[in-house]
Amino acid sequence: MQDRSIRLAIVVAEFNYDVTYLMLQRALSHAKFLGVDVPLVVKVPGSFEIPLAASKLAERPDVDAVVTLGAVIKGETKHDESVASQVFRKIMDISLDSNKPVTVGIIGPGASHEQAVDRIEEYAVRAVESAVKMVRRLRSLEEVKEVGETVTVE
């Protein structure tokens, strides 16, 4: 099912770029497979900076959804847990505040580099897939005018 009217923006972290570069390539490929446009890709230094760029993109009228890509890899401290926790919380806030899907394709916390490499395709594809599904479902939801019997939006 193709829908050229869906426009995604992608925010990708440069930290752990050996992982996130491949995530970006998989995300772009999957968007093309689904027939949606990706007119904007914004690179940020790390996952911590993703929410600011995602917020700016979500404000744009020419963006229907924002896909976030990053890899928060476990080190010797619990720094990865605090970074990921705050980033995930802010991404959810941005989605709710903008009324647009902002999807999470961020590996971690607690992932080793090897685990991150193993999850590249899964996380990238899932984030794009979720963004496209949510745009379509929110559009369908807007078309529901009256509810008498149960209506399932899918």
Automatic annotation (TrEMBL):
<keyword id="KW-0686">Riboflavin biosynthesis</keyword>
<dbReference type="InterPro" id="IPR002180">
    <property type="entry name" value="LS/RS"/>
</dbReference>
<feature type="binding site">
    <location>
        <begin position="71"/>
        <end position="73"/>
    </location>
    <ligand>
        <name>5-amino-6-(D-ribitylamino)uracil</name>
    </ligand>
</feature>
<dbReference type="GO" id="GO:0009349">
    <property type="term" value="C:riboflavin synthase complex"/>
</dbReference>
<dbReference type="Pfam" id="PF00885">
    <property type="entry name" value="DMRL_synthase"/>
</dbReference>
<feature type="binding site">
    <location>
        <begin position="76"/>
        <end position="77"/>
    </location>
    <ligand>
        <name>(2S)-2-hydroxy-3-oxobutyl phosphate</name>
    </ligand>
</feature>
<keyword id="KW-0808">Transferase</keyword>
<dbReference type="InterPro" id="IPR034964">
    <property type="entry name" value="LS"/>
</dbReference>
<feature type="active site" description="Proton donor">
    <location>
        <position position="79"/>
    </location>
</feature>
<feature type="binding site">
    <location>
        <position position="104"/>
    </location>
    <ligand>
        <name>5-amino-6-(D-ribitylamino)uracil</name>
    </ligand>
</feature>
<feature type="binding site">
    <location>
        <position position="15"/>
    </location>
    <ligand>
        <name>5-amino-6-(D-ribitylamino)uracil</name>
    </ligand>
</feature>
<feature type="binding site">
    <location>
        <begin position="47"/>
        <end position="49"/>
    </location>
    <ligand>
        <name>5-amino-6-(D-ribitylamino)uracil</name>
    </ligand>
</feature>
<comment type="pathway">
    <text>Cofactor biosynthesis; riboflavin biosynthesis; riboflavin from 2-hydroxy-3-oxobutyl phosphate and 5-amino-6-(D-ribitylamino)uracil: step 1/2.</text>
</comment>
<protein>
    <recommendedName>
        <fullName>6,7-dimethyl-8-ribityllumazine synthase</fullName>
        <ecNumber>2.5.1.78</ecNumber>
    </recommendedName>
</protein>
<comment type="function">
    <text>Catalyzes the formation of 6,7-dimethyl-8-ribityllumazine by condensation of 5-amino-6-(D-ribitylamino)uracil with 3,4-dihydroxy-2-butanone 4-phosphate. This is the penultimate step in the biosynthesis of riboflavin.</text>
</comment>
<dbReference type="InterPro" id="IPR036467">
    <property type="entry name" value="LS/RS_sf"/>
</dbReference>
<dbReference type="GO" id="GO:0009231">
    <property type="term" value="P:riboflavin biosynthetic process"/>
</dbReference>
<feature type="binding site">
    <location>
        <position position="119"/>
    </location>
    <ligand>
        <name>(2S)-2-hydroxy-3-oxobutyl phosphate</name>
    </ligand>
</feature>
<dbReference type="GO" id="GO:0000906">
    <property type="term" value="F:6,7-dimethyl-8-ribityllumazine synthase activity"/>
</dbReference>
<comment type="similarity">
    <text>Belongs to the DMRL synthase family.</text>
</comment>
